[in-house]
């Protein structure tokens, strides 16, 4: 049964992680004593472990073992990817320190105190050598104490956003860090000490943690879920104990009388009020001509109106079809008026249909009722219904296998059909991204789900596959696309003959190769040091964003024919505003891309997809580069955006940007991976 997680529980769990992170920063044992913090931490972690199942404990131990097995090169690759200074990376003792510290996150409470002491003893001198006494645990604890208090305040304020998915704890963490370092001179100085000695600030600590989790893959995900479940149960027990001892709740001073209704069953989250749970009596199951079962659900406009009128703010309405309703297909029918009612409340709201087969999230602004009514020959939308269909389908052309891939989920056909009387029209193309989800197939006991090797794909009519932006969480693939079609999730295991496991950009190259975004040469190599040209960069962005052209190329470039092999992708990029030509009317497709030009293209891509400005690190600017004067005015703002977003980090330990230097294929893979993670298009 899925736990109902309230904000206090989540903040409590985050607090454990934050105190852990501050406690494991080893220092010279003579400079500070933090036994009280250690005792508190150990007690809390023990409590979490006492509330975990044996399976959950095994999951955490697996993550601990996997972390300990990371090679020095693995750890260096993780740290170099977040901008750690090169001279620090060359310190083998520092690499050992980081690996041992990362293991502490997965250490059981009964071993934690001894392990903290061991890490302090073994690595205290290394830490002191790096910071020369400029950083102490006391200073870190002061920051994290203020951090925890401010984070809880933000969570209380934005709990609806967090539950609805429009923001996340990670975003709140970064926002809190930025505000604290801006408001408090001591914290700003602490941040500066970290930057000066390590090359990263406080936010970089969290980035390192995320990079370790990315490297460990599903092992880290399972461990995190296990720890969270233990923290939730521990907090629930604390709440129960508090309620049991909170005093007399009786009327008139007598003994308290338990109520008939368990308060834990009462909806407590904002989304409960906007969730329509379909009852078995509300559905009609029919057998389609091909012999499959289809569940039909009709939603009355009054149900939507009641929700809209009862809520101050409505971001989504979810129609949930329970798993025990057995059907290969589900169709939820909503009157056009329901969409219009919701749009009048919030033009950016979504109508969600959730089934065991998959989930569809359709923005109300993606359904133009006037156009649909006209296409159906109806004078108005009163008689129009919008049917959202989610159907378990098949890979009839064996496209997955034919493309050398493995299936990692069932094939699901997503459709939106407008109906008026006996007329109907499929709604296939959307102006913005539409989100859908598919559950992953159960892996065998010997398999692990490495999401870096997975991506959702659209199965095209010609048997080809188009990768789409995909994020994985809790055994579910959530992907974005602008068209309806058949979708599935595939597994890939690509490797390139000239990219060794310890190559600095290997993780990004292999990850994007597995996600069908980048490809190698015919001889099986990748040529990482080869320069990226303009059309290659264009193709990579189009693939990364899952774009398709809606129109025909208009012949605007004198050096691009309308039958060029890349013309459809170029047209898609032109329609999205990602690329433009040169002043002489050419596109110059095979010209090398400079770092400034790449920044401009990525900035346009960010503008096209949109992004959360709170994720930008405003403390990072181009002022840190000694060659900043070489950055042209035409690209300066875009380069700064790339630096604030952490997409580009500079060269020579971040001392120069090298705006006119060419972007190699390896560098392109790294910045593209950074970009897609920043806009939440991949994990």
Describe the structure.
The chain has 683 residues and is α+β, with helices and mostly antiparallel strands. Strands 2, 3, 5, 8, 9, 10, 11, 13, 14 and 17 form a 10-stranded mixed sheet that branches. A 7-stranded mixed sheet has the order 1-4-6-7-12-16-15, with helices on one face. Helix 1 (7-23) packs antiparallel against helix 8 (137-157), helix 2 (35-50) crosses helix 13 and helix 10 crosses helix 11. The protein has helices at residues 7-23, 35-50, 54-68, 72-80, 86-89, 92-104, 109-131, 137-157, 159-164, 169-183, 185-198, 202-216, 218-244, 301-310, 336-345, 369-375, 399-402, 506-514, 534-545, 567-576, 595-609, 633-644, 665-678; strands spanning 275-277, 283-287, 293-298, 316-320, 329-335, 350-354, 359-363, 385-393, 406-407, 411-420, 423-426, 429-439, 454-459, 465-467, 470-473, 476-483, 486-491. It holds the Pfam family SLH. Residues 1-29 form the signal peptide.
Q: Tags for this entry?
A:
single chain; 683 residues; alpha+beta; seven-stranded mixed beta sheet; 23 helices; disordered N terminus
Q: Care to give the gist of this entry?
A:
The protein has 683 residues and is an alpha+beta fold.
In terms of quaternary structure, the protein is: single chain
Structural class: alpha+beta
Tell me the number of helical segments per DSSP (H or I, 4 or more residues long). 23
State the helical fraction.
Answer: 40-55%
Mean pLDDT over the residues: 80
Strand content: 5-15%
| Sequence stretches where pLDDT stays below 50 over 5 or more residues | 1-37, 159-166, 245-271
Largest beta-sheet characterization: 10 strands, mixed
What is the number of E strands? 17
Radius of gyration, CA atoms, in whole angstroms? 27 Å
Distance between the termini: 26 Å
Which shape, going by the Cα principal axes?
globular
């Amino acid at each position: 049964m899925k736990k109902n997680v309230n904000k206090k529980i989540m903040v409590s769990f985050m607090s454990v992680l934050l105190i852990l992170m501050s406690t494991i920063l080893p220092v010279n044992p003579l400079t500070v004593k933090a036994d009280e913090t250690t005792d508190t931490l150990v007690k809390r972690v023990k409590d979490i472990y006492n509330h975990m199942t044996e399976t959950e404990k095994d999951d955490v131990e697996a993550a601990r073992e996997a972390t300990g097995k990371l090679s020095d090169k693995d750890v260096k690759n993780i740290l170099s990817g977040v901008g750690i200074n090169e001279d620090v990376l060359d310190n083998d003792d520092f690499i050992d320190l980081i690996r041992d510290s990362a293991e502490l996150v997965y250490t059981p409470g009964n071993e934690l105190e001894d392990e903290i002491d061991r890490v302090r003893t073994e690595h205290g001198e290394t830490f002191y050598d790096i910071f020369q006494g400029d950083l102490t645990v006391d200073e870190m604890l002061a920051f994290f104490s203020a951090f925890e208090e401010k984070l809880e305040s933000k969570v209380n304020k934005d709990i609806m956003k967090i539950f609805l998915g429009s923001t996340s704890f990670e975003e709140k963490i970064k926002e809190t860090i930025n505000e604290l370092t801006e408001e408090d001179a001591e914290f700003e100085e602490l941040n500066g000490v970290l930057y000066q000695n390590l090359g990263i600030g406080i936010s970089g600590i969290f980035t390192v943690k995320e990079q370790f989790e990315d490297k460990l893959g599903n092992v880290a995900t399972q461990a995190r879920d296990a720890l969270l479940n233990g923290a939730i149960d521990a907090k629930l027990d604390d709440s129960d104990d508090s309620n049991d001892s909170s005093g007399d709740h009786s009327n008139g001073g007598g003994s308290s009388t338990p109520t008939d209704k368990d308060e834990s069953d009462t909806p407590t989250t904002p989304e409960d009020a906007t969730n329509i749970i379909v009852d078995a009596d509300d559905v009609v199951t029919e057998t389609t001509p091909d012999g499959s079962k289809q569940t039909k659900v009709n939603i009355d406009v009054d149900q939507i109106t009641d929700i809209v009128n009862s809520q101050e703010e409505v971001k989504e309405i979810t129609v949930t079809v329970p798993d025990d309703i057995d059907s290969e297909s589900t169709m939820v029918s909503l009157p056009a008026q329901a969409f219009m009612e919701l749009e009048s409340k919030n033009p950016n709201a979504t109508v969600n249909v959730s089934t065991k087969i998959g989930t569809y999230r359709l923005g109300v602004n993606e359904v133009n009722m006037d156009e649909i009514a006209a296409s159906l020959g109806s004078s108005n939308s009163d008689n129009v219904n919008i049917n959202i269909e989610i159907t378990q389908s098949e890979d009839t052309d064996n496209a997955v296998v034919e493309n050398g891939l493995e299936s990692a989920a069932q094939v699901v056909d997503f459709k939106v059909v407008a109906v008026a009387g006996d007329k109907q029209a499929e709604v296939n193309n959307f102006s913005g991204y539409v989100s859908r989800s598919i559950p992953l197939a159960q892996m065998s006991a010997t398999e692990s789900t490495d999401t870096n090797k997975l991506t959702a794909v659209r199965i095209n009519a010609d048997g080809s596959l188009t990768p789409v932006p995909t994020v994985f969480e809790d055994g579910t693939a959530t992907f974005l696309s602008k068209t309806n079609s058949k979708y599935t999730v595939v597994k890939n295991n690509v490797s390139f003959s000239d990219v060794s496991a310890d190559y600095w950009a290997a993780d990004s190259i292999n990850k994007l190769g597995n996600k069908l975004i980048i490809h190698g040469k015919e001889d099986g190599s990748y040529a990482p040091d080869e320069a990226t040209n303009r059309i290659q960069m264009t193709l990579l962005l189009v693939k990364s964003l899952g774009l398709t052209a809606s129109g025909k190329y208009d012949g605007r470039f004198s050096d691009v024919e309308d039958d060029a092999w890349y013309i459809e992708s170029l047209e898609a990029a032109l329609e999205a505003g990602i690329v433009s030509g040169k002043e002489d009317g050419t596109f110059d497709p095979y010209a090398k891309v400079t770092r400034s030009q790449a920044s401009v293209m990525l900035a346009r891509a960010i503008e096209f997809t949109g992004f959360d400005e709170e994720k930008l690190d405003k403390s990072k600017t181009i002022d840190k580069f000694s060659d900043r004067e070489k950055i042209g005015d035409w690209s300066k703002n875009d380069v700064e955006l790339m630096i604030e977003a952490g997409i580009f980090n500079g060269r020579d330990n971040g001392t120069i940007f090298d705006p006119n230097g060419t972007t190699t294929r390896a560098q392109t893979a790294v910045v593209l991976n950074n970009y897609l993670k920043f806009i939440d298009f991949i994990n």
